[in-house]
Amino acid sequence: MSIMLLVHDGKLRYDDRLTDIFPEFPAYGRSITIRNLLNHTSGLPDYEDLWEKQYPNMPEEKIPQIHDAEVLKLLERESKPKFPAGSKWEYSNSGYVVMGLIVEKASGKPFGQFLHDRIFAPLEMNDTLAYEKGKNEVAHRAFGHSKEKDGLRETDQSPTSATLGDGGIYSSLTDLAKWDQALREHTLLREADMQPALTPVQPTGGPSQDQSGRNLAYGFGWFLNPYKGHARMYHDGETMGFRTTVQRFTADHLTIIVLANRTDIDPDALALKVADLYLAK
Q1: What does the domain layout of the chain look like in residue ranges?
Q2: pLDDT in tens, 170-186
Q3: CATH architecture for segment(s) 2-199
Q4: How far is CA 139 from CA 56, 154, 169, in A?
Q5: Which of 43, 60, 87, 162 is deepest in the core (most CB within 10 A)?
C-alpha cells in the first residue's frame, strides 16, 4: 500500500528499476522493476540465507538481528539474481525489505513514520505501529511461543524480526478490522488504483505452483486463488512464535483474521473452517 500511495502521488512508477532508486546497486538490479518486487518475481537472493551464512553453526537465538539497511548491503555484495526478473514467481522477503527502503527514499520519511502518517493515523489504527527497538514500544502486546516437548517456550524475536519492509508491524484484531474496512471502502486508494494489486502476475517462464501442484495467483501482497468457487484475496504470515492469516472473501462480504502467538496453531485451517460455516449459508 505504501508503494501504491507513492505511485499515486507521482513519486514512483511501477516500471522504475532498482538501479533508478539505488544507483550504486550492482548491474543485476537494472532488470528488476518495482513491479517485480511487488509481485515476487524479482529474483533477488534471500537475505535470510545470506545472513545466516555469516554465522555458521550458531544457534538461531544467538544470531544478531539484521536491519533493513544491512539487507541492502548484503544484496549489493551479490553479483547475480537467483533467476531473471519476471521469469519465475518466488516469495521474496528481500524484495519487501528493499521496498521499505524505496518508500523511505521516495517519501523522505522513515518507513515507520510513513506508515503512521499515510495509513495508520488516517484509519485511526491507534494500536498499530512499526516496532523499532529503543524508538517505540508496543502497549499490551502478546509474546510469541513455540511448542516443544515439555510445553510452550517463549520465542519472540528472530534474527530477522527487526526488519520492517517484510514485517515488524504490531497490530490488533480491532485495528485490522479497520484496515479491512478501508480496503473494502477504498478509503486510501480508488478502486481503479487498487486493480494492479488484484491482477495475478504471469511469469514468462510459466505459472508458479504450490506444493500440491495448483497454480498460484498472486498480485501485490495478496494471494488471489479462489476458495470453493468464492473469490478470495488472502495472506498468511509467520515469524518466531507467531502464526497469522487474513482471508478476505470480498464478494461475500466476509473477512476472517486470525492472530496466534503460538506455533502449534494453524490459523489458515481455523479461518477456512469459519469460512465453510459462513459460506454454507
Answers
A1: 2-199
A2: 999 999 999 999 999 99
A3: 3-Layer(aba) Sandwich (3.40)
A4: 36, 18, 13
A5: 43
